[in-house]
Design brief:
single chain; alpha/beta; 6-stranded mixed beta sheet; 30% strand; elongated
Length: 459
């Protein structure tokens, strides 16, 4: 979906008209003017939130003909209606990719977009000059017109959006459309029930309609995750996203299914992260990981740990590897794009409450009673600032440890990194990724698991 391109907020256009009319003290009504079929219309500026250019609206089946679909306006899902179709005005054919002129309106706590031919400007007039509507405006029902007014030799038809969109028809469109989009799953009617889909020009099952609605919801959630948390939905994690969506719908009110803030996105992703992310591993986790490490008699083991963060998981990994391969020289390339974390990782200390855990034998006490890792463990790790999306000049690799990092890369980079895995992994090498990520079968990896931990190997 193409991003909304805001031309002017209400505050900006209101400021513009104030400057142009500051000499006239009799202006007490402002309206946003636009055209439909070469005729001039206007709407009270108090109902206009902003004006915009947008396109590629997401179609929702089984809606009224003048409802073009829905649109993600900075995290808020709003219905989009074509005012020309609402008034039975002929709409010229145009390229589907062309941006449409949108008036974003707020009426009775509902927000929606109106497509018009062209948005003109803000005009200020005196309320006393607004004349009552006349039946001569035959192309629009007179009940939708609040008046007509002349300004600069142009006659404007002033539309009453309250009557239009708070009317029986308008309320049905607004409420039904919002409910369809925001409720992940509507009330469950019988599966065999059929409804007419005007876009497909055939009857479809209610289940098919519900599935399409769910797809729309997930699409908007995916966009919000990308915008708020730089989290990219792809075949790598889409199964988890679908499962999480089902949980999310049960946890949230119908009106709060969509992610409207960074806090919402963080709450949605909270169960995604692997165990002990950013924390010291438990003994059980270390034992399970150790079980998945292959036999390897090499004198030197090369390990790649992209997305090492502050280094806590890297030190835990180094201890597990030392126990599994006590006679091997271990070299861990730990990389991250957070320069501060990488710079401080080599100086990491272990808090006293964690110092008596399974890795205690690899710790030494400092003069100030703090604990740090022994020199052998420290020497096995090389922390470096590097973006894994860029070329890595690494030797052939025995172990890759990349928990959750792939989902924070765009789909193209995900593919490139997985290709890099295949190219750099030795024949008996293994790769670990996030516990809720799955490498697509098309890459041809084999897999073994212990608990929630999965190890991938080249088949």
């Amino acid at each position: 979906m193409e991003e909304n391109k805001v031309e002017n907020t209400v505050e900006k256009i209101d400021e513009q008209v104030n400057k142009s009319l500051e000499a006239n003290t009799f202006i007490d009504f402002k309206m946003v003017t636009f055209s439909l079929a070469d005729k001039d219309y206007a709407i009270d500026i108090m109902h206009v939130k902003e004006i915009a250019k947008a396109g590629r609206f997401t179609y929702v089946p089984n809606t009224l003909p003048f409802v073009l679909g829905v649109y993600n306006l900075r995290g808020e899902i709003i219905p989009i209606m074509d005012l020309r179709l609402f008034f039975n005005i002929e709409v010229p054919k145009s390229d589907d990719k062309k941006l449409q002129s949108l008036l974003i309106l707020s009426v009775e706590d509902q927000t929606f977009g109106l497509v018009v031919d062209k948005i003109d400007k803000v005009v200020g007039v005196q309320k006393s000059t607004i004349q009552p509507p006349h039946p001569l405006f035959g192309d629009i029902n007179i009940k939708y017109i609040s008046g007509v007014v002349e300004s600069n030799n142009r006659l404007y038809v002033l539309l009453d959006v309250i009557k239009i969109f708070a009317s029986k028809e308008g309320t049905e469109v607004n409420n039904a459309q919002t409910a369809e989009v925001n409720s992940g799953i509507s009330a469950q009617p019988k599966v065999e029930e059929l409804v007419y889909d005007s876009e497909k020009q055939r009857k479809v099952s209610v289940k098919e309609v519900q599935n399409e609605k769910i797809e729309v919801d997930i699409k908007f959630i995916s966009e919000s995750l990308m915008n708020y948390k730089k989290f990219y939905v792809s075949p790598l994690n889409e199964d988890w996203i679908k499962h999480r969506y089902e949980e999310w719908v049960k946890l949230r009110d119908e009106s709060k299914v969509q992610l409207q803030s960074a806090d919402d996105a963080e709450a949605f992703l909270k169960p995604f992260w692997s165990q002990f992310t950013g924390d010291w591993w438990s003994k059980d986790y270390a034992v399970n990981l150790k079980k998945l490490l292959p036999d390897n008699a090499a004198k030197q083991l090369v390990v790649w740990n992209p997305g090492c963060g502050k280094g806590i998981e890297t030190y835990c990994l180094a201890c597990v590897l030392k126990e599994r391969y006590p006679d091997a020289k271990i070299r861990i390339y730990a990389q991250d794009i957070d320069l501060l974390n990488v710079s401080n990782a080599g100086l990491l200390t272990v808090p006293e409450q964690a110092a008596n855990q399974w890795f205690a034998k690899y710790l030494i006490s400092k003069a100030n009673n703090e604990f740090t890792f022994c020199q052998e463990i420290k020497d096995s790790i090389m922390f470096e600032y590097h973006d894994c999306k860029n070329t890595n000049v690494l030797p052939m690799i025995d172990i890759i440890f990349a928990r959750d990092i792939l989902s924070l890369l765009d789909a193209k980079s995900q593919d490139a990194i997985l290709d890099d895995f295949l190219e750099k992994m030795k024949g008996n090498a293994v790769a670990f990724i996030g516990e809720n990520e799955r490498i697509p079968s098309s890459y041809g990896f084999g897999e073994k698991s212990v608990g929630a931990i999965v190890a991938y190997n080249k088949e």
